[in-house]
Amino acid sequence: MEDSGHSAAPLGALDGDERARLGARAAEAARRLAGQDVVAVALTWVDVSGITRTKTVPVARLEHAAAWGVGMSPVFDVFLLDDSIVSGRHIGGPTGDLRLHPDLDRLVPLAALPGWAHAPASRYAQDGSVHPLDTRALLRRETERLAEDGWGVRTAFEIEWAVSESHGDGFSPASHGPAYGMTRISELSGYLRDLLKALDATGVRVDQLHPEYAAGQYEVSVAAEDPVGAADTAVLVRETIRAVSMGHGLIASFSPKVDAEAVGNGAHVHLSLWRRDGGEDPAAAGNAMAGGAGPYGLTPAGEAFGAGILRRLPALLAVGAPSVASYLRLVPSHWAGAFACWGLENREAALRLVAGAEGERAEAANLEVKCFDGAANPYLALAALLAAGRDGLSSGARLPEPVDADPASLSEEERDERGVAALPSSLGEAVAAFEADGVLRAALGEEVADTVATVRRGEIALLDGATPRQIAAATRWRH
């Protein structure tokens, strides 16, 4: 996977010199934006429920926002998908405050919302320290932990969405042609053209766009980046899709299950592990997912990284498939990856090795996590994946035998013999696995781990007893 070139700047405590530097940079950026007729900047972060929240500032206040932040209650970390509030051991209630600081490296005018710009926000406490529930900082920390051992990760999200003609509670697909059919492009060619133009104008490098399986469903794939950049881009792409859709009188949903009877939306994650240098052996630098003597060309490090992710998938679902609706999507024989196994180009395996075409595998080979969906906070999801992969590296983990068939087609005895287990079939099962996983809890920190479990249990209680149709309806327009 080719790296798009974005990089994440260090994130530490804010002192007077750093505030002055940020303010000066923002003042220059504000002058540039004003010259482009931008009047406001949306500062966004993603909460534990996977919903993008925002506060906005006029361009004239960008300098102050960069230096001193914008106030926001910490309680948003325990908002549920319906905006009701639960309370955890570390967060909840009306008291307290934190500060949102725009990342000026990712500040960009929004082509789909003329007059507006976007910047992902990092969250700080009032004393200038990084807020413990800032998942963007958490992802940066996990990236730095790998870098300390000489490793980097290139990653990207595939983003699936369904587009509806209806602005009511129901879903009315805006295109009806065959799955993956050119008819679907023709039906919405102007909409898709404007989307590609808007993404290009915001600096997003699109690799491909195509119709997906369900009526009204599409997918866009973007270039790989460093982990923080990839999560930032995932948010930017989704909000661009949302805005372009509205401009065409349509409404987009990234929910894992828009229609209880239809195929759901995934948010597959692609990752490749790269050695920054070869140490005493310069030839050892490069993509650990190719050129090795392991299965299908994996190097020992690439295998260990993938094995670390595979063995923690049940717990990882609490952050990657974090909604009750996620488990309406995560069913066998729907290319959702419902079994904890891996395989070469196996779209029914939760972990798919994408080898790439011969001749470009040194760049293209990567692992695809298929069981994650669009209800996930992309920063939190990637942080957890990196932590799992890092644990695999440190322990020299090995992958089991690959699976070259739909696991659902194997008998229960065959699956047992091959060590293939079904992933959790409910959010409650995933939360139980997450709470029992000491590696993930230690990597994410107690504040984050407790808040994740609290919010997940809150959604379980919120939708307790609901039918699949009621669950889909409650979730449809929230992500």
From TrEMBL:
One example GO MF annotation: glutamine synthetase activity
SUPFAM superfamilies to which the protein is assigned, alphabetical: Glutamine synthetase, N-terminal domain, Glutamine synthetase/guanido kinase
Gene3D superfamilies: Glutamine synthetase, N-terminal domain, Glutamine synthetase/guanido kinase, catalytic domain
Annotated region described as Disordered, given as residue ranges: 397-416
InterPro entries, A to Z: Gln_synt_N_sf, Gln_synth/guanido_kin_cat_dom, Gln_synth_cat_dom
Family statement: Belongs to the glutamine synthetase family.
Protein name, UniProt field: Glutamine synthetase
The species this protein was found in: Actinomadura litoris
Lineage start: Bacteria, Bacillati, Actinomycetota, Actinomycetes, Streptosporangiales
